[in-house]
Amino acid sequence: MAIADLKAATRIPPKLVTIRVKRWSPTKGKVEWREYQVETYRGMTVLEALLKVKAEKDHTLSMRYSCRMGVCGSCGMVINGVPRLACQTQIAEVASESNPVITIEPLYNHPVIRDLATDFNPFFGKHASVKPYLIRKDIEEREGPTGEYILKPEELENIYQFSLCISCGLCYSACPVAASDPEYLGPQALAQALRFIIDPRDEDPNTRIAVVDSEHGCHRCHYAATCSAVCPKAVDPAMAIQMLRSIVFRHRLGFWRKRTSKPAEKPKEWQPKKPMPPEAQTIPGVDLEQMEKEPVIVEVDGIKVEIDYKFYKIR
Q: Is residue 213 exposed (0-12), middle (13-18) or buried (19+ Cβ within 10 Å)?
């Protein structure tokens, strides 16, 4: 699993680096490489370097980015041959004094729109095919729930790792099977299928199992584990696919059963406050019920204090 170099931001990168970008324009219809010289500073990321190129050297450079903090997953690209998030990749991590060249390409296995921006419609289409949402058999209860669905701490632990996915597409870009089979669902979609299949709040695992137990489903995985190697959130899609395979085979043999949770009981009706115990003494002259309606003014050691329901004011 991809682990960021936490000390890279403290190291001083080369003062001048060469950003070598693979560019493609739909109007020209051909691939070309462009090189840009960029002055760096400590803590500079690859995304910041590209934005500096776009602002100061070439306004036509196209890329996709948004949050700049590794949450949205928009700035995925191939940096020095490895799919990475540009906003999380330090210049000092991928360039050195002996080799100050950084090669940047669009994500592999994704159709290129322009330069470093790729088309995610096929990717999200596969994501949608596994129905990445909770399905309940009782439509009326689903549309008008009376309470939250019960999820035990140990059950949350089972799905938590897979729920961290930000759909950045790095795993799909690194997958050798996706490179050879465009119909392959891919690590991201399969990991999310597992996440909802094992979620006890979901009541329709059979629909997803039918999708993943197919020619282009979980059985196409060769377990190269490159998807887990580049995942910026340590989701480990390779492990998820192996777990999914186990469930599929046990389901075929009739050995797999899923426990589903029920909605929590409806909260009890509001009850009047219980009287305070004798040991809980209030300030003389303070009526709690009156204080909830309006501030109460009391005198303490010759100082008038306005006691509000939330805070004190000294007058």
A: middle
Residue 215 and residue 75: Cα distance in Å, rounded? Answer: 31
DSSP string, 193-248: HHHHHS-TT---HHHHHHHHSSTTSGGG-----HHHHH-TT---HHHHHHHHHHHH
pLDDT tens-digit readout, 14-39 = 999 999 999 998 888 889 999 999 99
User: How many CA atoms, within 13 angstroms, populate the side-chain half-sphere of residue 313?
Assistant: 8
CA angle 159, 160, 161 (to 5 degrees): 95
Closest CA to 251 of 201, 198, 200, 202: 198
Amino acid code (one letter) for 54: K
Q: Quote the strand ranges of the chain, DSSP E.
A: 16-24, 31-39, 76-79, 82-85, 101-105, 112-114, 117-118, 296-300, 303-307, 312-314
Phi, psi (rounded to 5 degrees) for 190: -70, -40
Amino acid in the structure at residue 287: D
Q: What is the layout of strands, in order, in the sheet containing 296-300?
A: 296-300, 303-307, 312-314
Q: How confident is the model at residue 189 (pLDDT cuts 50, 70, 90)?
A: very high
- Report the pLDDT value the prediction gives residue 101, as an integer from 0 to 100: 97
Please answer whether residues 208 and 159 qualify as being in contact, where contact means their C-beta atoms are separated by less than 8 angstroms.
Answer: no
pLDDT at position 313 is: 44
| pLDDT at residue 194, rounded to an integer | 97
Tokens linked to 298: 């009391």
Longest dimension (CA), the chain: 86
Mean pLDDT of 149-173: 94
Whole-structure pTM value: 0.81
CB-based contacts of 251-254 (< 8 A; 24+ apart in sequence): 251/206, 251/209, 251/213, 252/213
Rg (CA), the chain: 28
For 139-157, what is the mean pLDDT?
Answer: 85
| Euclidean distance between CA atoms 62 and 73, whole angstroms | 16
Query: What is the C-alpha to C-alpha distance for residues 277 and 298, in angstroms, rounded to an integer?
Result: 23
